[in-house]
Amino acid sequence: MTSSEFSGGPAPARLTVGIVSAGRVGTAIGAALERAGHIVFGVSAVSDASIRRARTRLPESEILPVDQVAARSELLILAVPDSELASIVAGLAATGAVKPGTLVAHTSGANGIGILAPLIERGVVPLAIHPAMTFTGHDEDTARLANACFGITAGDEIGYAIAQALVIEIGGEPVRVREDHRTLYHAALAHGSNHLVTLVVDAVAALRVALEGDELMGQQLVDDQPGGLAERLLAPLLSAALDNALRRGPSALTGPVARGDVDAVAAHLKVLDEVDPQLAAGYRAMSLRSAQRAGSKRELIELLERR
């Protein structure tokens, strides 16, 4: 069966939804679908943490084995880690638990609908619906979905219409991603979000060292707890830099690398190496990429290329 044969139409008003499994992503999407009027009847959960998460975020849902969740679903959400998705799909196909015509959507960023091939052969409607958002396991996860973009891939136009309708219902913005571009799409998102966290954590660590011992100036002691002085110092700067980068692109780049200030960059590398050689290596790598973006002079490029 293809999605054009799906008898319920592209956007059923109320779907019976099952979720595999009760992780951060699955429970956030489940809660968002409930708010949109769908019925999340069941969720699979194995670990103590996932059981607690399911009971907190989806209190009306039953905790059921995977095959029972799959058998009763009109919309089945596979919100499992990328490394487990293929085996879950293969297991569901082997048991025949998923009925033909079921909407089966996974939330993997790196995969399109090809990974659902064993279930496609059994007549499901395949969808890849990936929220371009980071998840912490807290209440803000569901709220953030209303402002997030979702990378969607489907097998045909009816499939895209279904995926788009589901995303729009929960307040998100659907963005089509070609099947053969899913890995590149995922790499770009991971590079931007994951490496931003590492960059900020490194900057905070260096600032904490720089601000030590200034309590005699009326400044609070700097400790290693989140939300301290170092974070407060960085927050407005980082917010402005992110806003500028998204609105102005490479022209938003400022600072010693953009100016081609070789002496300042060399001094930075020296003091950062004294704090943490790995932190300095990260600064060097990012400065080199920044210098390439800015078209900096050769002297600075050569400095940054040294090991």
UniProtKB/TrEMBL annotation:
What Pfam families does this protein map onto?
DUF2520, Rossmann-like
This chain belongs to the protein called DUF2520 domain-containing protein
User: What PANTHER family has UniProt attached to this entry?
Assistant: CONSERVED HYPOTHETICAL ALANINE AND LEUCINE RICH PROTEIN (PTHR40459)
Question: Entry's SUPFAM superfamilies?
Answer: 6-phosphogluconate dehydrogenase C-terminal domain-like (SSF48179), NAD(P)-binding Rossmann-fold domains (SSF51735)
Q: Return the InterPro entries for the record.
A: 6-PGluconate_DH-like_C_sf (IPR008927), DUF2520 (IPR018931), NAD(P)-bd_dom_sf (IPR036291), OxRdtase/DH_put_Rossmann_dom (IPR019665), TM1727-like_C_sf (IPR037108)
Origin species, per record, is: Antrihabitans stalactiti
The Putative oxidoreductase/dehydrogenase Rossmann-like domain is annotated at 1-131
Specify the DUF2520 domain's residue ranges: 149-289
Q: Which superkingdom?
A: Bacteria
